[in-house]
Design a protein that fits this description.
The complex is a heterodimer. By secondary structure, chain A is mainly alpha-helical. Chain A has three helices and no strands. Chain A has one domain: Up-down Bundle (F1FO ATP Synthase), CATH 1.20.20.10. Chain B is built from seven helices and four strands. The chains are: A mainly alpha, B mainly alpha.
């Protein structure tokens, strides 16, 4: 296998990180809907968005690795 | 069909006014230009907005007041009254990151927050500043930040290095989070933009996707500025209150 194709495969593998981000974001918003359905007065939306951003960032770390593999090395 | 895509071209830094001082490249770049614009806009918003301050605020005045109250409320909630001493820094940080993210969404402009060196400089400033505040306030007692309460002595051998490590990687996670969000968002927009040109009449589909993505990017731009600031507040609270 030459370097170029190995790079492509590596970048594709790095994008598997997005699975975790998807699960995380789904979890955050399902919990938010749960909380708001049980107690509409709950002041939890800012925390939910904080959690969303943190969960999304982990997936983007994987994406950043993919970019590094493709364009830097 | 070969599609010519250059999704990363938008992140190139161009020298507008080349300038070299003793072997150091200190050119005025498009990144610096956008930073200047952001600073001028923030200053204009706050100075002009509050110049004719009235009891019933005008639109500009209420934007300026809302952003002030937003950050003041965030600090008071997360750090407490003591944290208000650091309000100017946190507010400046928030406005700088927010305007950087938002100005980047203007077509053909440049997003300075999509460069790791910019976000890392901001995050390192926060990290060093917060650590110094903690050491000055608490002295050696600051080290108790790394020792969790109510844990058996044996487990501490394992937990203290983990706490120390998680403290030390803070500037990296803080900067990579902002940088990766901006980079990924803008790259995605550019990739779908490339599809629009390549597909001809069918290009209306990726065009629609791009329109929706712009909304997502607007959300992300504001959200990431918020997250950057609130994490700064939480780190500050750690240093001031030590858990």
């Amino acid at each position: 296998m030459d370097l170029q194709s190995a790079k492509m495969i590596g970048a594709g593998l790095a994008c598997i990180a997005l699975v975790g981000a998807g699960i995380g974001i789904g979890n955050v918003f399902s919990a938010l809907i749960n909380a708001l359905a049980r107690n509409p007065a709950a002041q939890v939306t800012p925390f939910a968005f904080l959690g969303f951003a943190l969960a999304e960032a982990t997936g983007l770390f994987g994406l950043a690795i993919a970019f590094l593999i493709l364009f830097v090395f | 069909m070969a599609i010519e895509l250059h999704p990363l071209q938008q992140f190139t830094i161009d020298r507008i006014i080349p300038l070299h001082i003793g072997g150091i490249d200190a050119s005025y770049t498009n990144s610096a230009l956008l930073m200047t614009i952001a600073v001028v806009l923030v200053t204009a918003l706050l100075v002009l907005g509050t110049r004719g301050a009235a009891l019933v605020p005008s639109r500009w005045q209420s934007i300026a007041e809302m952003s002030y109250e937003f950050i003041a409320g965030m600090i008071e909630q997360n750090v407490g009254k003591e944290g208000m001493a650091y309000f100017p820094f946190v507010f400046t940080l928030f406005m700088f990151v927010l305007f950087g993210n938002l100005l980047g969404l203007v077509p053909y402009s440049f997003t300075y927050t999509s460069h790791i060196i910019v976000t890392f400089a901001l995050a390192a400033t926060v990290f060093i500043g917060v650590t110094l505040i903690g050491i000055i306030r608490h002295g050696w007692h600051f080290l108790s930040l790394f020792v969790p309460h109510g844990v058996p002595k044996v487990l501490l051998l394992l937990l203290v290095p983990i706490e120390l490590l998680s403290y030390c990687i803070r500037p990296f996670t803080l900067s990579i989070r902002l940088f990766a969000n901006m980079l990924a968002g803008h790259t995605m927009l550019a990739i779908f933009g490339g599809f629009v040109a390549a597909l001809g009449l069918l290009g209306i589909v990726p065009l629609g996707v791009d329109v929706l993505l712009i909304f997502l990017e607007l959300l992300v731009a504001v959200l990431q500025a918020y997250v950057f600031t609130i994490l700064t507040c939480l780190y500050l609270a750690d240093a001031i209150k030590l858990h």
